[in-house]
Write a structure and sequence with these properties.
Blueprint: E1 3-7, H1 9-17, E2 22-28, H2 33-42, E3 49-53, H3 55-61, E4 69-74, H4 81-90, E5 96-100, H5 106-119, E6 123-127, H6 136-141, E7 151-154, H7 157-166, E8 170-174, E9 180-181, E10 191-195, H8 204-209, E11 212-215, H9 227-242
Parallel strand pairs: 2-3, 5-6, 5-10, 6-7, 8-10, 8-11, 9-11
Antiparallel strand pairs: 1-4, 2-4
Length: 248
């Protein structure tokens, strides 16, 4: 399996605590003693090799803000849609998924993962082609949520929607021309929310497969929100309906 990097203290600690197999951790020779100790303690029960290296070495390996720490791990493993549905079943909860239709920005994917974890969504489905995948940048943007929210990667999103419908899951798309206000979303329904591409929105084929479309009312001059912001509003609306005040 290919290797990928995790950079920064908190993402590495999250991966270690989640039981992610880490092969090697490089620690800058300029890293503060306490930060190095925290990593070494968290990695104590793992088979990870700890290496002290010059900071310049880490600078060469990563263009991101590595904070003096880089870990090498197996590439993130994708789950199946069935595994996501089983996760909901094990929790005795109505399925709640996010379908990302050709979302390209890794920062948006990371932010959506972070919110999905916060609201208890059971998983995310992305297409194999023309879309952001699980990378170091996504992991960093997710603030560790990538370790807790399963992601399935599918060849055909439209076909996946048909399969979800067979499982009695309603598929709700987001579109500025949607007939329904997003605040009408029903939390007591098995649901998959579809978020489209940052520029083009949801593709025509996927849009046609949706059971209905919702829109976010806009009073300003801009016609749409950032994809991850729109996704967060929709997810929290479902969360609000599923867990009313006093039932958190």
């Amino acid at each position: 399996m290919d290797e990928e990097m995790i950079i920064g203290k908190n993402p590495i600690l999250t991966a270690l605590r989640a039981g992610r197999p880490i092969h090697k951790i490089m620690i800058s020779d300029q890293l503060q003693a306490q930060a190095a100790k925290d990593i070494q303690c968290a990695a104590k029960k793992t088979k990870a090799v700890i290496q002290r290296v010059p900071r310049k070495k880490l600078d060469q390996l990563s263009t991101g803000k590595h904070q003096g720490l880089i870990a090498f791990v197996s590439a993130y493993e994708y789950q199946t849609v069935d595994a996501i549905l089983q996760r909901a079943e094990k929790k005795n909860e109505l399925p709640f998924l996010l379908l990302l239709d050709e979302l390209e920005d890794p920062h948006n994917l990371g932010a959506i993962l972070r919110t999905a974890d916060a609201v208890g969504a059971h998983g995310i489905v992305i297409p194999k082609h023309r879309a952001a995948s699980l990378t170091e940048t996504v992991a960093k943007a997710s603030a560790g949520a990538i370790e807790h929210v399963p992601v399935a990667r599918v060849t055909n999103m439209a076909q996946t929607i048909d399969e979800l419908k067979e499982e009695q899951i309603w598929v709700v798309g987001t579109d500025e021309a949607g007939a329904e206000d997003y605040r009408t979303l029903d939390g007591q329904t098995a649901m998959a929310l579809v978020i489209g591409n940052e520029g083009k929105g949801i593709s025509r084929l996927v849009k046609d497969k949706c059971d209905w479309l919702v829109q976010l009312p806009m009073s300003g001059s801009i016609s749409s929100l950032n994809a991850s912001v729109a996704a967060a509003l929709l997810m929290y609306e479902v969360y609000r309906k599923r867990k009313p005040l006093g039932d958190q």
